[in-house]
Amino acid sequence: MIRFGWLVFALGFALSNSDDSTKASDLSHISKPTKGQDLKPTVLAVFLARNKAHALPFFLGYFERLDYPKDRIFIWIHTDHNEDETARLLEEWRDGVASLYQRIDFISSSDVVYDALGVSDWTTERFEHLLRLRERALVAARERHVDYVLYVDMDNIIINPRTLSEMIAQKRPVVAPMIDPPVRSAHSNFWCGVDETGYYRRTDEYFPTLYRERKGCFEVPMVHSTYLIDMKSPGSEKLTFIPDEDYGLAFDDLLVFAYQVRKAGMEMFVLNTEVFMRMPWISSEYSSLEEEKEKMVTFFINELSADGPVIRSEHVPHAKPAKTNFGFDKVSSIGC
C-alpha cells in the first residue's frame, strides 16, 4: 500500500507538471561576457511563500543586499493558500525589482486547501504539495540551464551579504549555510547523524559545529530549509524531489530530500565559517497567524537587531499602524 501511494504521488506530479505555467518556451537572454570578463555562475532562487507577509519586507530586504550580480539571478516564486497579504506584497516587490534580476517567475494560486490544525501544521497533503513545488522549481532550473538552484525558506534571514558567494565557492554538490539558531535554542538546518528511520541522531560533532568550535565545510547526512544545489555536479541530472516506489521512510520533506540526494550519488555539506543566517523559533503546529507575527517581532527585536539596523526592502509597501490611544483618553510621553 505504501509503495502504491508513492507511485500515485509520482504519477500525479507528472500529469500536473505537463502543462506547468512556469515552463519557459523562450529562455531569457543571459548576459554574455565581454572580452576579458568572467561572468558569475547563474543561480535560480526559489521562494515558496505562505502567510509570510509579516516577514517578507525583511527577508527580501536582506536578500537584495547579497553581493552577487542580480543579472545572474533568476527568481522563481510560488505562493498559495494565504490568509494575509503575502501574494500582493510579493507581486509588488516583483514589479519593483524586475528590471534588476535576470528573470522573475511569479505564480499565485488560491485553490489549494489543506486539512490543517493551524497555519504551521504540516499534513501529508501539504508535504506532497511542497515537494511538487520544489520539483517544478528544479524543472524550471533545468529548462533555464542555470548553474545553481538556491532553495531558501522565507523566514530564514540572510544577514551576511557574502552568503551566496561563499556557498558557490565551496564547489559542493549540495551545501547549506549554517543558520544560527535563536537564543536558548539548538535547532539549525543540518544534522550530523541520523538513525535507521532517517531522523535526527545526536552525535559528538553537532554542538562543536553549531557553536563553531570547529569551522569549515563538513559533509553531513541532512541539510534543510536553505541550501544550494550545483546543477553541474555529477548526479544532479538524476535528482528529484518526488519519491519512488523504493522509498520506505516517513513521508517528511526533509527525509525525502536527503534520500533523493543519496540516491542520485550526491553529498550534502554544511558551511559554518561565518555567521550567514538567522531564523526565529520553530512554530508549533497549533500556532495561529497572529502568534506567528508576534514571534517574528520578537525575533527582530532580540536577534536581528543585534547585527545592526534591521533591513527592510524599499520595494515592499509599508503599512503604518493606525494611531491609537490604547483605550485611554490621552497618552503622554515623558522624556528622561
Strand-helix topology:
Layout: H1 2-17, E1 43-49, H2 56-64, E2 73-80, H3 86-97, E3 103-109, H4 124-144, E4 148-152, E5 157-158, H5 163-169, E6 174-177, E7 179-180, E8 190-191, H6 206-210, E9 217-220, E10 222-223, E11 226-230, H7 253-263, E12 268-271, E13 277-278, H8 289-302
Parallel strand pairs: 1-2, 1-4, 2-3, 6-12, 7-13
Antiparallel strand pairs: 4-11, 5-13, 6-11, 8-10, 9-12
Notable characteristics:
eight-stranded mixed sheet, alpha/beta, 8 helices, about 30% helix, about 325 residues, three-stranded mixed sheet, single chain, 13 strands
Largest sheet: 8 strands, mixed
The helicity comes to 25-40%
β-strand percent reads: 15-25%
Cα(first) to Cα(last) distance is: 70 Å
Q: Which blocks of ≥5 consecutive residues have pLDDT under 50?
A: 18-31
Average per-residue pLDDT, rounded, comes to 83
Pairing-aware structural class of the strands and helices?
alpha/beta
Query: Count of DSSP E strands?
Result: 13
Assembly state here?
single chain
Question: What best-fitting shape do the alpha-carbon axes yield?
Answer: globular
Question: Could you walk me through the main structural features you see in this protein, from its secondary elements to its overall organization?
Answer:
The termini are far apart. The chain has 336 residues and is of the alpha/beta class. It has helices at residues 2-17, 56-64, 86-97, 124-144, 163-169, 206-210, 253-263, 289-302, and strands at residues 43-49, 73-80, 103-109, 148-152, 157-158, 174-177, 179-180, 190-191, 217-220, 222-223, 226-230, 268-271, 277-278. Helices cover 28% and strands 16% of the residues. Mean pLDDT is 83; it is low at 18-31. It is globular and about 65 Å long. The strands form 3 sheets. Strands 3-2-1-4-11-6-12-9 form an 8-stranded mixed beta sheet, with helices on both faces. It has a 3-stranded mixed beta sheet with strand order 5-13-7. Strand 2 (73-80), helix 3 and strand 3 form a beta-alpha-beta unit. It has 8 helices and 13 strands. The longest helix has 21 residues, at 124-144.
